């Protein structure tokens, strides 16, 4: 697993090549403020090869955050992360590996009849109860998440996963109440706390799309304070002295800045944005969709672009996401070696200071 010694040694090796605060604290270690994501792409051997080459280039160029999920490309993304990590010249203890569970995954390719596949492999086997399955494809129940964690460990070829997210729990709101979801999360967190105690897992978190960046009255809102409270209860139930809830993941970019601008969570001093609440609660925030899944590479609003360092729109978008208070790492999907090098080059510039970042929203 990623260790303090391993990640600090990685920083010592690469740190001078980048701007200030490129490496940021995560637990007792440090991680790069650029992370490599593995969401996009067809489930083919050719794309697997592209990702393996890109991941190797990233690891050997100064990026030590790898983000994936069991459902990405039908488990292929996890497997290629494992192969690339094993084949690179970088020490495993230098790299933060994060994955997710929640969406029922296929295996290698999309089956001819997805519904029948899920029924046969997950419902009929008793792994997922029918009333736990929302939209026919999403489940966050403890037994299912624990099985998915086991499968992810195998896919990645790892003994310990550094960060495991419960994936998009707001999906459950389509059929279940918030209270039911919080209760389920507490049970799942308890199971994850137990896996921490067994050394299969270092930390866990919650990855979302809408839940933390929308107003409390929004139909897809979930409360960060409530989730943090449930994690504390889970730690106590598992016999741990402190919670291992460590991170949130949510979209953040020039066009989706809600995590900074929308006051959606009750903090000690009033209602706060997701990023502010997370920072005060000791939660690391990982920004997904930092370049809008590629769309921002075509250009940023001129008033924002002129304030940012970078030779391309993609570089400026990365530096915008890296500049937000509370963001630990900006995640960017990368399966092209040239894009890896371009994105790393963006980080040789300093991020915006707090005052300059705030001024963007004036």
Describe this structure in words.
- The protein is of the alpha/beta class.
- The protein has a single domain, classed as NADP-dependent oxidoreductase domain (TIM Barrel).
- It has helices at 4-14, 45-59, 76-87, 114-123, 142-156, 178-197, 224-238, 258-261, 274-280, 302-305, 313-323, 337-346, 354-359, and strands spanning 23-26, 29-32, 34-37, 65-67, 96-101, 161-167, 201-207, 245-251, 265-267, 270-272, 284-288, 327-333.
- The strands form three sheets. Strands 3-4-5-6-7-8-11-12 form an eight-stranded parallel β-barrel, surrounded by seven helices. Strands 1-2 form a two-stranded antiparallel sheet.
- The protein is globular.
- The model has no long low-confidence stretch (mean pLDDT 96).
List the helices and strands and how they pair.
Blueprint: H1 4-14, E1 23-26, E2 29-32, E3 34-37, H2 45-59, E4 65-67, H3 76-87, E5 96-101, H4 114-123, H5 142-156, E6 161-167, H6 178-197, E7 201-207, H7 224-238, E8 245-251, H8 258-261, E9 265-267, E10 270-272, H9 274-280, E11 284-288, H10 302-305, H11 313-323, E12 327-333, H12 337-346, H13 354-359
Parallel strand pairs: 3-4, 3-12, 4-5, 5-6, 6-7, 7-8, 8-11, 11-12
Antiparallel strand pairs: 1-2, 9-10
Helix pairs in contact: 2-3, 2-12, 3-5, 5-6, 6-7, 11-12
Fill in the keyword field for this structure.
362 residues, alpha/beta, TIM Barrel, eight-stranded parallel beta barrel, 12 strands, 39% helix
What integer is the average pLDDT?
96
Task: Indicate the CATH topology.
Answer: TIM Barrel
Task: Give the second-level CATH assignment, the architecture.
Answer: Alpha-Beta Barrel
Q: So, the CATH homologous superfamily? A: NADP-dependent oxidoreductase domain
Overall, the morphology is globular
Largest sheet: 8 strands, parallel, barrel
Order of helices and strands: HEEEHEHEHHEHEHEHEEHEHHEHH
- Oligomeric status: single chain
| Global Rg | 19 Å
Distance from N terminus to C terminus (CA atoms, Å) equals 42 Å
Organism: Halalkalicoccus paucihalophilus
Domain NADP-dependent oxidoreductase: 34-212
Protein name: 2,5-diketo-D-gluconate reductase A
InterPro entries: AKR2_Oxidoreductase (IPR053135), NAD(P)_OxRdtase_dom_sf (IPR036812), NADP_OxRdtase_dom (IPR023210)
């Amino acid at each position: 697993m990623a260790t303090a010694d391993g990640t600090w040694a990685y920083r010592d090796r690469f740190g001078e090549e980048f701007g200030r605060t490129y490496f940021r604290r995560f637990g007792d270690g440090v991680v790069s403020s650029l992370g490599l994501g593995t969401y996009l792409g067809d489930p083919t051997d050719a794309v697997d090869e592209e990702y393996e080459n890109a991941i190797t280039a990233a690891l050997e160029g100064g990026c030590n955050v790898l983000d994936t999920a069991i459902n990405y490309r039908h488990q292929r993304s996890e497997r290629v992360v494992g192969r690339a990590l094993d084949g690179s010249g970088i020490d495993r203890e230098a790299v933060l590996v994060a994955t997710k569970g929640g969406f029922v995954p296929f295996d290698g390719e999309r089956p001819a009849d997805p519904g029948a596949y899920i029924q046969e492999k997950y419902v009929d086997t008793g792994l997922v109860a029918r009333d736990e399955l929302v939209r026919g494809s999403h489940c966050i129940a403890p037994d299912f998440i624990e099985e998915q964690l086991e499968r992810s460990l195998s896919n990645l070829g790892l003994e310990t996963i550094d960060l495991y997210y419960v994936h998009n729990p707001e999906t459950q709101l389509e059929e279940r109440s918030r209270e039911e979801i919080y209760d389920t999360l507490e049970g799942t967190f308890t199971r994850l706390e137990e896996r921490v105690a067994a050394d299969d897992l270092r930390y866990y978190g919650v990855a979302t799309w809408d839940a933390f960046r929308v107003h409390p009255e929004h139909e897809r809102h979930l409360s960060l304070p409530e989730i943090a409270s449930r994690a504390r209860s889970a730690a106590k139930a598992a016999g741990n002295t402190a919670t291992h809830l460590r991170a949130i993941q949510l979209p953040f970019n020039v066009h989706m800045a809600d995590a900074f601008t929308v006051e959606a969570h009750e903090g000690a001093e009033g209602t706060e944005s997701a990023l502010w609440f997370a920072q005060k609660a000791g939660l690391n925030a990982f920004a997904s969709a930092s370049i809008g899944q590629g769309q921002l590479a075509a250009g940023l609003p001129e008033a924002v672009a002129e304030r940012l360092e970078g030779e391309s729109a993609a570089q400026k978008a990365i530096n915008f996401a890296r500049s937000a208070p509370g963001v630990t790492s900006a995640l960017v999907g990368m399966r092209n070696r040239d894009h890896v090098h371009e994105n790393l080059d963006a980080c040789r510039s300093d991020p915006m200071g707090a005052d300059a970042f705030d001024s963007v929203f004036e």
